Amino acid sequence: MRTLLRVLSTARELWPWYAGIIATSVFVAATALATPFIIARATDEVVAQASGGGGGLMVLVALAGALLVAELLNTVLTNVGGYLGDTMTMRLRAILSSRYYAKLLSLPQRYFENQLTGTVINKLHRSITEVTQFLQMFSNSFFPTLITVFAVLGISLYYSWPLALLLLIIYPLFTWLTALTSKRWQVLEGEKNDELDAAGGRFAEVIGQIKVTKSFVRERTELDTFDGHYRRAVATTNTQSSWWHRMDVARRGSLNIIFFGIYLIIFAQTASGIFTLGDMVLLIQLVAMARTPVMMMSFLVDSSQHAIAGSKSYFEVMDETPEPFAAVGEIRSPDLSPTATTGGAAPAASAWPVVPDAPTIAFDGVSFGYDSHAEVLHDITFDVARGERLALVSESGGGKTTLVNLLLGLYSPSAGTISIAGTDTASVSLAQVRSQIGVVFQDASLFSGTVRENLSYGRPGATDAELEQAARRANAHDFIAKLSDGYDTVIGERGVRLSGGQKQRIAVARAMVKDAPLLVLDEATSALDSRSERLVQAGLEELMADRTSIIIAHRLSTISTVDRIITLRDGRIDEVGSPAELAETDGIYAELLALQESGTKRDKRRL
Ligand code: ADP
Ligand code: MG
User: Fold this and answer.
1) 294-317 burial, b if ≥16 CB within 10 A, otherwise e?
2) Domain boundaries, given as residue ranges, for the chain
3) What is the CATH architecture assignment of 357-436+518-529+542-607?
4) Which residue's alpha carbon is at the smallest distance from atom 4 of ligand 1?
5) Most buried among 251, 427, 469, 525, using CB within 10 Å?
6) Where residue 331 falls among pLDDT bands split at 50, 70, 90?
7) Residue 287: pLDDT above 50?
8) What is the ipTM of this complex?
9) Kind and range of the H or E element at 453?
10) CATH number of 2-318
């Protein structure tokens, strides 16, 4: 229950809706209650007229007219309430979803490594749907009835306290019986959801890499695994539902016994002349009105169980610790007014405390491991001078990408500091750090959408001329021009409609457009053949000219022009020197160089 209130207070700005719903509910209840009173009055009037008294036909017409007015008002108000409930729910949905997304965007890289994308999406969808469905039902039907119940209790107390007492114990009794069953229900619900989340997570992953699944002919096994999750979810639901409904028979059965007592009191009191026939008609109607919500309650409790489970998994994500100084900024509500502009301007490049054109980078005693027991980098200390080009060399898995991840603030070092332009990066916002760095990753990581949108991802304001210039320098313009719609060609999810080399050239151009003073190339040209690599290399050389760069290259020939090379071995810095110097030693660089040269010679011989 507390988590549901937390959901409402999360969207505090919806208070006019909440207030409107409460107000209409009060009026809906009042108009609903008018009906039994009018009918009771009519009953007494009819009895009086039948025995020769009463006020004549006009009184009966007036009473029927009053019924009509009360019922029409009730119909209109119920619909006003329904409208408010529906719009409130959709707004709440928008606010909750936006906050969830904002939260996810601000979580550290590490969070996503422990989650399947599909699971995260599944959870969002389910938890928000369940919470909003419940609130919609609550505000549209349950809340007005709840008010009626209180009124009915008050009125019956006026007529007969034993009657009121019996009515009164129904609700706590029913709630208690429901609570008895809900614990087990919640546990089973959790188990079921885990299965569904696992199925959804794997599903999204497989569809995302369908090529691999097809070429390894794993469709059948993937499907079987998927079905397995659903089979277990079905079995859990069987247990859950049969338990719930058996308990419901017990719950309602005990209610039926109480209603037996209630009717007995009404009949006996009327027979002995304490109640008039009109009173009896009124009380029977009121009891019927009190009965509906009890029956509705088991439905509502069922739905509230879902909603509580849903809001719990919602807040599980909302309570995760974000990255320090997350770039989404303070998590606030989305602008839902019809005139709101979408997209918005890109945030202005954050002012760096000291921004020389090409700042320096310094690692000082940096150690790091992805998990506590295995250190990947140990006591790494080096400086990159302004405008310098530094290459990192190690065997595969030696920690080069990890070092770049640390520079980007995707992870925090377990010891040591990283500074840019003399400022400790831990003391400024990650968005500021990242806005200083242009980066090309090993996997090009493009987005669905057009070539143009991808190129301008780091600088939405870039002009077409700037985009084209970057594409030319990355040797991408020619192939882009040949695509069906040129720069407006849609490249598919993660760029699936492009070759590996084309994707990489777009990624290089994207980094060029961002035009940041620091440049990081993590095997940026590894997917290119030697000829394209040389062409892109020319563009990269130009890009590196007025920047401080860290380069990781698969082919050592491409880093022969750097100023300095650092080699890593067992997580430590092994050697530092110019390419020429290191080629003379017997370190990793020389070793890898010899391997690659002999490979090249062998290839040439084969040709
Ligand atoms: P390189 O880029 O030099 O090939 P990496 O920096 O990618 O090497 O990896 C260094 C080590 O860290 C490897 O042993 C790898 O298994 C491990 N590693 C890389 N990324 C992660 C991660 N996200 N979680 C846990 N371990 C990782
Ligand atoms: Mg790597």
Assistant:
1) beebbebbbbbbbbbbbbebbeeb
2) 2-318, 357-436+518-529+542-607, 444-515
3) 3-Layer(aba) Sandwich (3.40)
4) 397
5) 525
6) low
7) yes
8) 0.98
9) helix 451-455
10) 1.20.1560.10
